[in-house]
Design brief:
- The complex is a heterodimer of chains A (208) and B (302).
- In chain A, 34% of the residues lie in helices and 29% in strands.
- By secondary structure, chain A is an alpha/beta fold.
- Chain A has a single domain, classed as fumarase.
- In chain A, the strands form two sheets. Chain A has a five-stranded mixed barrel with strand order 2-3-6-7-9. Chain A has a two-stranded antiparallel sheet with strand order 4-5.
- In chain A, strand 6, helix 4 and strand 7 form a beta-alpha-beta unit.
- In chain A, helix 2 packs across helix 3 and helix 3 runs parallel beside helix 4.
- Chain A is globular.
- Chain B has 302 residues and is α+β, with helices and mostly antiparallel strands.
- Chain B has two domains: 169 residues, no CATH class; 122 residues, no CATH class.
- Helices cover 35% and strands 25% of the residues of chain B.
- Chain B has seven helices and 13 strands.
- In chain B, the strands form four sheets. A five-stranded mixed beta sheet of chain B has the order 4-1-5-10-11, covered by helices on one side.
- In chain B, helix 1 packs across helix 4 and helix 2 runs antiparallel to helix 3.
- Chain B is globular and about 55 Å long.
- The relative contact order of chain B is 0.20.
- The chains are: A alpha/beta (208), B alpha+beta (302).
- At the A-B interface, strand 4, helix 5 and helix 7 of A face helix 3, helix 5 and helix 7 of B.
């Protein structure tokens, strides 16, 4: 990756907004991000399948793989204390369908996603970006307000669907773009080749 | 025996660990940020530094995965509080810190899928107790993230292939895990007689500060060579390349059985939250580790 390009985007995101993004670009998002982890993906797809209406229209919004730490303030509103990303690969089996049926334009998580998601992103014009894993306090700082929360009683705090109003949420690094290019897949192949060479060199070093 | 109650001391101690990154990690990330030339890796290191500072300023958890509590207790034979009471008081403090939102409830019953809600449960916190001479109590705490447990590896090698397998195991564990354990990571490595011994030693090794070398010159060389090799992988912060994949390698060993050569590898994320407190018989305490903390409205290493 050479010098990174930086974008500041506002939700709802259009096909054009995300189509100009490429792997390695850095994005800051302002607007609405909606969290969903394993159970929430299942729940949302079930609701769509049953023909009922979702409590929020996800079209053009940012989906965030996150289980936040939250506290209830005395006035009953929510304070987000820490909200870094969770491992996205766990959602791989359902994400392609999720993108197709909800119309989300950007997915934020950590660790990257697989080939099926990359293909769905190419077909339906969406991107995947990572937020620095572990940086939960920084993420919470960029969340201005909890707009709403769905299925809290049923799914519990980390698994519920949280609707966050965010400002300049980032840095997000694009690792799957609308051409279907998948940064982590290529990176892992490179690392594997490097590992073989490193092991060979290391064998010459005496530990005994 | 006195009625010394250490709950309040433990409460402050746990809060410090949850919100204040240890000095060695803060310094290592800061130095790496200044040196890093890869622009994307640099943005990640900057985000990590900002995160540490916000956690400090707002007294918030550094990461939303506030981990599983691991405790190593060294209790002086003349310390006035019994080990059972020490553990009880620590557990009470842990519940309180969790309730106040500094720790996420992370203890889940695997058979009944139920979260205890307070970070305690069967064998959690995980506790090692060691009686030592003297009248002081020393508590080592690490709240260990779940994601960085992923690369953990155990290999039961034959002794003749021991060191060869050690090299392979360490490089493969980190290469395979890629961005998942939130690099730059600290890597704990141990060899010894049995599976449980090496996994336990590898985890405990993560407590040692970055940059400190094992007192044994051979062990120190293993740490240095493995660290050098791992950083050639160029996985980098969150998998974006650059020079920093591992912050350090910490090696330890036990004597082995003539027929065994067990190898254990455990990693910890950049957000390694750990610290040590020492408590005197009169109840007074002092932190033996320094952390990024809020002092008079400013974040300082104290």
């Amino acid at each position: 990756m050479s010098e990174a390009r930086v974008f500041h985007l506002k939700t709802p995101l259009s096909d054009e907004d995300v189509s100009k993004l490429r792997v390695g670009d850095i994005v800051y998002v302002t607007g609405i991000m909606v969290t969903a982890r394993d159970e929430a993906h299942k729940k949302i797809l079930e609701v769509i399948e049953s023909g009922e209406k979702l409590p929020i229209d996800l079209k053009g919004l940012v989906l965030y793989h996150c289980g936040p730490v939250v506290r209830k303030r005395e006035d009953g509103s929510w304070e987000v204390v820490a909200a870094g990303p969770t491992t996205s690969m766990r959602m791989e089996s359902v994400e392609a369908e999720f993108i197709e049926k909800t119309g989300v334009k950007m997915i934020v998580g950590k660790g990257g996603m697989g080939q099926r998601t990359a293909e769905a992103m190419k077909k339906h014009k969406a991107v995947y970006a990572v937020f620095t894993g572990g940086a939960g306090a920084l993420a919470a700082d960029r969340i201005k307000r909890v707009v709403d929360v769905y299925w809290l009683d049923e799914l519990g705090i980390p698994e519920a669907v949280w609707v966050f109003e965010v400002e300049e949420f980032g840095p997000l690094v694009v690792t799957i773009d609308t051409t279907g290019k998948n940064y982590y897949e290529e990176k892992m192949k490179e690392v594997k080749i490097k590992a073989e060479k490193i092991k060979e060199e290391l064998m010459k070093v005496e530990f005994e | 025996m006195t009625d010394l109650n250490l709950e309040e001391t433990f409460y402050e101690f746990i809060k410090t660990i949850a919100t204040g990154i240890p000095e060695d990690i803060y310094t290592a990330i800061k130095n790496a940020y200044e040196k890093e030339e890869n622009p994307v890796a640099k943005t990640q290191l900057k985000a990590i530094l900002e995160d540490m500072e916000i956690a400090c300023k707002k007294k918030r958890p550094i990461c939303q995965d506030t981990g599983t509590p691991y405790l190593w207790i060294e209790i002086g034979e003349d310390f006035p509080v019994k080990p059972t009471k020490v553990i009880k008081q620590f557990t009470n403090a842990l519940r309180k810190v969790t309730k106040e939102g500094y720790l996420r409830p992370n203890a889940v019953d695997p058979l009944y899928f139920k979260n205890s809600g307070d970070n305690t449960g069967r064998y959690i916190p995980w506790i090692h107790v060691e009686p030592v001479p003297g009248d002081k109590l020393k508590v080592y705490l690490m709240t260990k993230g779940g994601g960085s447990e992923a690369p953990s590896t155990l290999v039961m090698s034959t002794p003749l292939k021991g060191f060869e397998n050690l090299k392979k195991t360490v490089i493969d564990a980190i290469a395979r895990a890629g961005a998942l354990p939130c690099p730059p990571v600290i890597v704990g490595v141990a060899i010894g007689a049995g599976a449980d011994i090496v996994m336990s030693l590898a985890k405990k090794a993560l407590l040692r500060p970055i940059g400190e070398r094992h007192p044994d010159p051979k062990a120190a060389k293993i740490e240095e060579e493995l660290l050098k090799a791992l950083n050639k992988l160029e996985i980098g912060p969150h998998g974006f390349g650059g020079r920093l994949t591992a912050l350090d390698v910490k090696f330890d060993y036990s004597y082995r059985h003539p027929a065994t050569f067990a190898i254990g590898v455990v990693t910890s994320c950049w957000a390694t939250r750990r610290g040590i407190i020492e408590i005197s018989p009169d109840g007074s305490s002092k932190m033996l580790t320094r952390h990024l903390k809020l002092v008079d409205g400013e974040c300082k290493i104290v």
